[in-house]
Design a protein that fits this description.
It is built from 14 helices and 16 strands. Strand 10, helix 6 and strand 11 form a beta-alpha-beta unit. By secondary structure, the chain is an alpha/beta fold. The chain binds one RNA strand through helix 1, helix 6, strand 13, helix 9 and helix 11.
RNA sequence: GGCGACGUACCCAAGUGGUUAAGGGAAGGCUCUGCAAAAGCCUCAUUCGUCGGUUCGAAUCCGACCGUCGCCUCCA
């Protein structure tokens, strides 16, 4: 395996080797659970899922950890607005988040730690930072002193001395030595709900902005992570601060490879509620698109490229998925035909070549577009051979196995249909064939229309009738 | 103001010194078909934002310009 990844810190492609041979510890920044995630968020989460699947396909084992930020200004504000205890409020949003992931066929991470379940771990880090002289306290709030960490800015390449002293600092009632310092622990303030406060050795308060990721990543993956990911907006200040906190506390390198996904934009513009181009997954699905088409679109553009989301592109994605699905079905039929002959050497070689090309795509910084290009090259070859009658059952079986294997990373082909639906549809197809034999086309068309209305598409082929659910 | 990314056909997009410039979608043609749909096949960029430069050779490297976008403040 020779996997190359674009490390944000190095600003270049690096040869990736996990710390423990064959095993990757992966920390993926998760959502702040105060609303329904939008398709831009989901682009990042789908990418991370594809990355896990691709790493596994390259022979690595992966432990993925994704945090759930359930304590911050936004979650507190939301809970107060709805008159709910913090936990009850965030529980609801965590549930819809998992729903969306499931809908998009995302394989769950090994752990989804919640910040509020790790307050003691965070307190420990603050204590360590304090022992090492990286913090100071003022009014119950503990600040990280940027001046005590010379490497600050190495990830984002932002020079601390040039940081603008933003007007927003005035909003902050806390006292700090330097406007650039950030809170690791926020002392309780007047009017904050009890459900968002903890009594700790540091006093009463709540964890600061970025501390949870340091605490939870190190708890589940050790003090040095192989890969840490997020979207580009996390680079500064979130990840920069994580480095300062983590390395300040342990004295060890925090992350070996930083990976950041570009944003999704809509019709060439940033997605924003005020522009009316803000979409959640249910918004998109309610317009009649399949989750598999959405997933395909989100993963088809390599992660470091901005993804321009349009409904035109989504329709294109649906068609592309149908092309894969259709070949899968054709191969399924062909491979079922009785024939004891072994797969032909020439075809086996073609499969091997395609497999290598797909793999090379993933090895090159998870280049999904290149991998898809290679896969579709194979799709055309398989279709052509199939059409020419040159594909034996064993060849078809080999092709189908490869297609399914490729889909192990893509995750866009449907699961097998459920048996009761299958029996029903087969029955209707038989009835339609009867009607067609009688040349009762009104009756046969009625059956076709009825199934179409239910999203089931019939294809009359020389080999018989095939059906599938519309992508 | 500081830092950074991007600009390849109608749309999306791979390609980062020598290839016929991948692939997907759309469109047109053909095959199949009771009709249709679907599916499959074929066609579809002498050219890579513009202008210069380096080089035997550039979409790929350098410079300028034009355009789009992002971060610098919570943000996937």
């Amino acid at each position: 395996m020779s996997l190359r990844l674009f490390d944000t810190a190095a600003r270049s492609l690096v040869d990736f080797q996990p710390l423990a041979p064959g095993h990757v510890g992966l920390y993926t920044c998760g959502p702040t659970v105060y609303n329904r995630v939008h398709i831009g968020n989901l682009r990042t989460f789908v990418w991370e899922d594809v990355m896990c699947r691709a790493l596994r396909s390259l022979g690595l084992s992966v432990t993925q950890v994704m945090n759930l930020t359930d304590i911050d200004d936004k979650t507190i504000r939301g809970a107060v607005a709805e008159g709910l205890p913090l936990r009850e409020f965030t529980d609801r949003h965590i549930a819809t988040f998992f729903e969306d992931l499931k809908t998009l066929n995302v394989i769950p991470a090994a752990v989804y730690p919640r910040a509020t379940d790790h307050v003691p771990e965070m307190v420990e880090i603050v204590k360590k930072l304090t022992e090492r002289g990286h913090t100071y306290e003022s009014d119950g709030t503990f600040w990280f002193r940027i001046a005590s960490f010379p490497a600050y800015g190495k990830l984002s390449r932002i020079d601390p001395s040039s940081m603008k002293r933003g007007a927003r600092v005035a909003d902050d009632e806390y006292e700090k030595e330097d406007v650039r310092d950030f809170a690791v622990w926020k002392g309780a303030k007047e009017g904050e709900p009890e459900s968002a406060l903890w009594e700790t050795e540091l006093g009463k308060g709540r964890p600061g902005w970025h501390l949870e990721c340091s605490a939870m990543s190190m708890k589940y993956l050790g003090e040095t992570l192989d890969i840490h990911t997020g979207a580009v907006d996390n680079i500064f200040p979130h990840h920069e601060n994580e480095i300062a906190q983590s390395e300040g506390a342990t004295g060890k390198p925090f992350v070996r490879t930083w990976l950041h996904a570009e944003h999704l934009i809509v019709d060439g513009e940033k997605m924003a509620k005020s522009k009316g181009n803000f979409f959640t997954l249910p918004d998109v699905l309610s317009r009649g698109y399949s989750p598999r088409a959405v997933r395909y679109l989100l993963l088809s553009v390599p992660y470091r490229q901005k993804l321009n989301f349009t409904f035109d592109a989504l329709r294109g994605a649906a068609s592309a998925v149908e092309r894969l699905e259709s070949l899968d079905a054709r191969l399924g039929e062909r491979s079922g035909a009785a024939d004891a002959a072994a797969a032909s050497e020439a075809f086996v070689a073609k499969v091997a070549e395609a497999r290598g090309a797909v793999r090379a795509g993933y090895e090159d910084d998870l280049n999904t577009a290149a991998a898809l290009g290679a896969l579709f090259g194979f799709v055309k070859e398989a279709n052509t051979s199939l059409e020419a009658g040159q594909l034996g059952p064993a060849d078809a079986a080999a092709a189908r196995a490869f297609l399914r294997e490729a889909d192990g990373v893509l995750g866009v082909l449907p699961e097998g249909a459920d048996a009761s639906l299958e029996a029903e549809v087969e029955g209707k197809i038989a009835a339609r064939q009867e009607a067609r034999k009688r040349r009762d086309f009104a009756a046969s068309d009625a059956i076709r229309d009825e199934l179409a209305a239910r999203g089931i598409l019939l294809e009359d082929t020389p080999q018989g009738v095939r059906w599938r659910r519309k992508g």
